[in-house]
Amino acid sequence: MKTYLVQIHYVPEATERRLAARPAHRAFLTELHDAGKLIDAGPTADQKGAYLIYRCADVAELSQIRQQDPYPADSYETVSISEWLPLFS
Fold this sequence. Notes:
Layout: E1 2-10, H1 15-34, E2 38-43, E3 49-56, H2 59-67, E4 76-84
Antiparallel strand pairs: 1-3, 1-4, 2-3
């Protein structure tokens, strides 16, 4: 398995729709965490974006997982996706 660090920025104009989807989004993330596919996730302190750390076989699996996220696709922008080599996990 590989570890991927994903950084997203929220689209300010879509805040209301994104927040409406947040309970479903967080339930989805909980399922991924319980399945061992999501190591951790959370918003930045300024609430302008978030980081998510996934454990997947490859980028194709990561893409498939992210497409299932209940957040409206136009409510955030993916800034970066990087394979990450954590020291402690």
